[in-house]
UniProtKB/TrEMBL annotation:
Upper taxonomic lineage: Bacteria, Pseudomonadati, Bacteroidota, Flavobacteriia, Flavobacteriales
UniProt keyword terms in alphabetical order: Membrane, Transmembrane, Transmembrane helix
Protein name per the record: 50S ribosomal protein L27
Ranges that cross the membrane: 12-31, 43-64, 84-103, 115-132
Amino acid sequence: MDFIKQFHSGWAYLTILMGVVFVISTLIYAISKKDTDATIKKIGLFTTITFHVQLLVGLVYYIMMFTSLEPSNIMADKGLRLTFVEHPMMMIAGVIFMTIANAKLKRSTTVPMKVTVFALIGLACILSRIPYNVWFA
Ligand code: HEM
């Protein structure tokens, strides 16, 4: 349990960093109308892998936490609602947006602005529902 918690907590830094790198680099490519090359495709691939690893570890962490949870009303408690409903839902949505952005990137010859828009929405979903009080405690 402790390893999963530490991993999920630490890997989150890499996830956010890769998300920011992806948004900025696709924005630069889109503005300068550069062709989709191996470099941007690699950034897209590494970002997607980083996000999916975090998603899978998050799911494992969730199951472990959920099974050791005392019977309680999750929706009525602000903290529990964030941990067990809002955080997972928004993170899954964020990963879906990022995955769509990468899929669109792979299929294009020049990087379209919609790739950056999808990635930005994904990143916003993620940043909006991170339990910062637990993370920085
Ligand atoms: C890109 C995706 C994700 C990011 C960036 C992320 C980030 C984080 C961070 C920073 C924490 C606080 C860790 C700590 O220091 O204890 C956390 C906690 C947690 N995450 Fe995620 N997470 C992601 C996806 C998920 C998913 C998909 C699930 C479950 C389906 C999940 C379940 C949890 C749970 C149960 C906690 C514990 C919260 C608590 O202790 O109150 N995470 N997550």
